[in-house]
Specification:
Elements: H1 19-30, E1 39-42, E2 52-55, H2 57-71, E3 76-79, H3 86-97, E4 103-104, H4 111-116, E5 123-127, H5 129-133, H6 137-143, E6 148-151, H7 158-166, E7 171-177, E8 182-186, E9 189-190, E10 195-198, E11 203-207, E12 214-215, H8 219-225, E13 226-227, E14 230-240, E15 243-249, E16 253-256, E17 259-262, H9 263-270, E18 276-286, E19 290-299, H10 309-317, E20 328-331, H11 345-354
Parallel strand pairs: 3-4, 3-5, 5-6, 6-7, 19-20
Antiparallel strand pairs: 1-2, 2-12, 7-8, 8-9, 10-11, 11-14, 13-14, 14-15, 16-17, 18-19
Helix pairs in contact: 1-3, 2-3
Length: 355
C-alpha cells in the first residue's frame, strides 16, 4: 500500500464521518493519480469483535463495475445506509464511479422525497430487510420507481420479497461481506469475475477481484481466512445448478443437548407464524443444554396473546424435529439493531439471560 495521508486524520482509515464527509473523502480516493492506500472498513461486530478490513480501490471498483453490469447499466444511487459500513460505502463508490452524485436520504424529509430528488436515468438503492419491512406506503411506492433495490445484510423473508414485488419493487437479493467489497452474489449468481465454491463441510469460499487485502494489524486472522486466493467465509451453503444458496452461518448452528440445530431454519419457520411480525433465533449458553434455542419475537398487531412458548414449539415441530423447537421465548416491541441495520446479537443474548 502506498500513499502519504496520515491514518490518524484520514477519514478512510477507518471510514468515518457524516455521509457528505465520506462522499468527499471517497471522491478524492477514487480520483487519486497514484494508487491510494487501501481504505479500512470496520465490521459491525454483530457476531464477535469488530475487524478492520482493508479494501483496495481496485477491489471496490471491480465490485461497483460488476454490479452495474449485472443490473443493466451505471446509474445514480440512493444512500440510505450508514456510510461507514461496506454496504453504504459501496453505494457511494458505485454512484461516483458512474459520475452521479449519491442522494443522501437524511437530507430529505422522507425516503420518497429523496427518491424524487434523484436525476433522470438509471436509479438504484441498497437496503437491509428491516428497513424495507418498516417502510411507509409512500416510501414503498417511491422504491417502485427505481430500476432495482439491492437487499442484503441478512436472510430475506420470502414473504417480504413477495410483498415488495406486489408493490412493483424490483428486488435483487445480495450476499457478501466487507471482505468481498460488499455483495458479490446477486439472486444466487456470482458477479462477473467472482468465484464461489463450497467445501466438503458446506463452508462457502469466495475468490476473485473484489476480495479484501487482509485485516489491519491482524496477520494471524488474515492467514486463517485468506488461503490460496480464496476467502474462507463463516457461512455454510450449497450450489445447485449454478445458484448459490446460503443456509446460514457456522455460528448459527446451535448445539443443544448434543443436537445440531440450524437457527436460521428455525427463524424461517417462526417467521411464517401469523402472530409474529419479526423474529430472531439465537443460541444462548445454558448449564443444562450447553446452549438453549431462544426465540426473540415481535408480535403482530393485536396478536400477542397467541405467542406462548408451547404454541411456538408446536409450530416449529410441525415442520422440523421437536428438538429444534425454542426453549425460551422473549417478546419484544422491536428487534434491537446495530447502526448498520443488522440485529444486535450481543444485546439479544443479554436480554435472554436477564429473564
Amino acid at each position: 500500500m502506498t500513499g502519504v495521508s496520515s491514518p490518524a486524520t484520514d477519514p478512510l482509515r477507518p471510514v468515518t464521518g457524516s455521509p457528505h464527509e465520506v462522499i468527499e473523502a471517497v471522491r478524492g480516493w477514487l480520483h487519486a493519480e497514484t494508487e491510494p492506500e487501501s481504505l479500512v472498513v470496520e465490521t459491525s461486530g454483530s457476531t464477535g469483535a469488530p475487524k478492520q478490513v482493508l479494501l483496495s480501490r481496485a477491489a471496490m471498483l471491480a465490485s461497483a463495475h460488476a454490479t452495474h453490469e449485472r443490473l443493466g447499466g451505471a446509474g445514480q444511487w440512493l444512500l440510505a445506509l450508514p456510510p461507514a459500513y461496506v454496504a453504504g460505502l459501496q453505494v457511494i463508490v458505485r454512484s461516483l464511479a458512474a459520475e452521479a452524485e449519491p442522494v443522501v436520504v437524511d437530507d430529505h424529509p422522507s425516503l420518497a422525497d429523496a427518491v424524487a430528488a434523484m436525476d433522470a436515468g438509471r436509479r438504484y438503492a441498497s437496503l437491509v430487510p428491516t428497513q424495507l419491512h418498516r417502510m411507509s406506503d409512500g416510501d414503498l411506492a417511491a422504491l417502485a420507481t427505481l430500476d432495482a433495490v439491492l437487499l442484503g445484510g441478512g436472510p430475506i423473508d420470502p414473504d417480504l420479497r413477495r410483498r415488495a414485488a406486489d408493490r412493483g419493487i424490483t428486488i435483487v437479493a445480495t450476499y457478501g461481506s466487507s471482505e468481498t467489497s460488499g455483495g458479490c452474489v446477486y439472486d444466487g449468481r456470482p458477479l462477473d469475475g467472482v468465484r464461489v465454491e463450497v467445501d466438503e463441510d458446506e463452508r462457502i469460499r469466495i475468490g476473485g477481484p473484489t476480495l479484501f487485502d487482509g485485516y489491519q494489524h491482524d496477520p494471524e486472522l488474515t492467514a486463517q481466512v485468506l488461503v490460496d486466493g480464496w476467502f474462507l467465509t463463516s457461512d455454510i451453503g450449497r450450489i445447485d445448478d449454478g445458484l448459490v444458496q446460503v443456509l446460514g452461518r457456522l455460528d448459527d448452528v446451535v448445539i443443544s443437548g448434543g443436537t445440531n440445530i440450524p437457527a436460521t431454519a428455525v427463524a424461517r419457520r417462526l417467521g411464517r407464524h401469523v402472530a409474529i411480525d419479526d423474529v430472531q433465533v439465537l443460541g444462548v449458553d445454558d448449564e443444562e443444554w450447553g446452549q438453549r434455542v431462544v426465540a426473540f419475537v415481535v408480535p403482530a398487531a393485536g396478536l400477542d396473546g397467541a405467542l406462548t412458548l408451547d404454541a411456538l414449539r408446536d409450530w416449529v415441530a410441525t415442520e422440523h424435529p421437536r428438538t429444534w423447537a425454542p426453549r425460551q421465548l422473549v417478546v419484544l416491541d422491536a428487534i434491537p439493531l446495530l447502526e448498520n441495520g443488522k440485529p444486535d446479537r450481543g444485546l439479544l443474548r443479554a436480554l435472554a439471560d436477564r429473564i
